[in-house]
Amino acid sequence: MSRTPMIRSVLTLFxxxxxxxxxxxxxxxxxxxxxxxxxxxxxxFIGAHxxxxxxxxxxxxxxxxxEGYKGTVITLTGGEGGGNATGRETGRALGLIxxxxxxRSLSMLGVTSPHFxxxxxxxxxxxxxxxEQKWGxxxxxxxxxxxxxxxxxxxLVTMWPGPGTHGQHQMAARAATLAYTHAGDPAYCPDQVAExxxxxxxxxxxxxxxxxxxxVGIPTDTVSRTARIRYADLKSVAQFNYRSQGWDANLTxxxxxxxxxxxxxxxxxxxxxxxxxxxxxxxxxxxxxxxTGVRLSVTPEAYEVGQGRATPVTVQVTNTTAxxxxxxxxxxxxxxxxxxxxxxxxxxxxxxxxxxxxxxxTPPATAPADRTPLTGTFAALQGTQPVSGQNAAFVRPxxxxxxxxxxxxxxxxxxxxxxxxxxxWVTGALPTRLPVVVGRTTAVTVNVTNRSAARAEGPLTLxxxxxxxxxxxxxxALDAGQSAAVPVQLQVTPAALPPGRxxxxxxxxxxxxxxxxxxxxxxxxxxxxxxxxxxxxIDGNVADLTxxxxxxxxxxxxxxxxxxxxxxxxxxxxxxxxxxxxxxGLTVKDELVACNIAPDDVKxxxxxxAIGITVAPDRTSQDTSxxxxxxxxxxxxxxxxARGFRDADAKQGPMEDTAPGMQVASVKQQGGYSIExxxxxxxxxxxxxxxxxIGLNVVLYDGDTKDxxxxxxxxxxxxxxxxFSWGGKQAxxxxxxxxxxxx
Length: 743
Description:
By secondary structure, the protein is of the alpha+beta class. The protein contains eleven helices and 40 strands.
């Protein structure tokens, strides 16, 4: 081919591509395409780590890969704080690997342009405030807002933003919630205006959810027309890329199960179908009755409303379609027995115009104090075509006098966040936590509020599990409009513990009149340990360690599969102290002790057989940055010689570098091993004294993989002295056993 025809062919190709781009942007080709148009997407997921998108993978494949919608993902960190099942890379090197894993996984789902903010991923934490502090304060939220404004997703999806999950997950979800709430407000993150970034208002916000809280489930058992396998299978194949996290070891093709991906609709500014079948309906997909472009919101003045008292609820509709609406009627559907006033007369609504009506809504005096939907509706004509839609908000009717258990600091902070962002109704899925100690009297607080116009007084009635009793007869006496914190003393005996367990999670409630509030009672072990005059020799033989002892067995499970028997995984633990050290000795039963960790690769005890000792010398610790988290592998590939280190606290690494004076030693025994720890008080953030009570937990990690690959993550079971799922055993100091240092 000569040079001239080749040039003509290239020019023809460029012209065709330019025309295609012009058609896609909805205008004629003028030599450039708006950068914002190139950025525009229909939906966005916001998470903290590569692989957090696992909860939306099949859903994204359905909408993006098969249905042609556009989507993206914001990942706040590179996941450097996670483990590495494929090598020894840590820090930023591991983060780069994990980011590439996510790019490859997302590309199989149709997501081609994800974003990584590069925030610091650190050790496992359940603390949102600690996460925010290590991320340099709240400024990162504006980085999320900037991307929301540039990429313009109508639908935002994120994770659960409250306690009970990873602190970084919480903060990613809170950033997403703030972006949904404020990205359309030019006064929020105002410096972005100077960048030419325009405000943008997303239309729907979802949290990934369990089945009990979900409002919509997206099936994964149907076949993707692009991949020609089920969505669950495509998800499994895509997530095989997350090899550094060991996901490839458990994923299969075909997928073992096909559960739907579950989501909770947290807030919407558009009409919503009931029940929902798609995340996009009303936002980028037309609903059955309402055109895309109609905005509809329902806003109560407050989430909690008085029984028998009127409260304002505003219904607002905006017409952003190109055509006017006529005979627009706003209304509010209420539960039986509820009443309202303020229904407006029908009116026309031009394109770009908004109409609103404020209803005075009164629940009956006997309305149950439950989360209750109030459904706002509109009906109109567009031309001669009837159109209509609905959206709901939630309120909770409460009597004049209410009492509830005071929440822990983390629950209280999230409740404040939810109230400030108009998402308070979702906090019903977050029970208040009450830590109490076996064998001791523990003070809890009941908050009582009198909203009436008269003085109120009476008893506080507590419903408690067996083994827990209240000391005395607590009462309240409040003037009109007054609130008070009433201390209540709970006495806990071993009878409160479930069979075979050293800790327990039990329901409790407090009642005033007809109002009942519930909470979760976390029953913790309590122990007084002796002060020894002659320190034990740290040689792995625990016979010379004279101390208080406890047992940990298969029922003390917090992680994955329950051991088959005490011979599979269990331990006897001895505890003692002196002025310089805390001493911990364990006799561990383990039928198969794995020794697959290299001696120069001691980190992340979850990877193999290991023991963790968590110590909070100050019982007011709110996160693990003010604790010592010691751990040891009982053996390595070099033989049966324990290697100790610190993990998931403010100073991680081999014990020689992070805890001078710390010693560990182990001995192989028939059917298991014994191991000893000497932990220096000087290596801890503070030094307790005789008579003080500290938080202290003992955690067992068990991996029963014979001939495991060196460095592989073989975690199978986790036990603990105080064992609560999702991190309480090592990341919430207020849920650790309470150990008193005898005088």
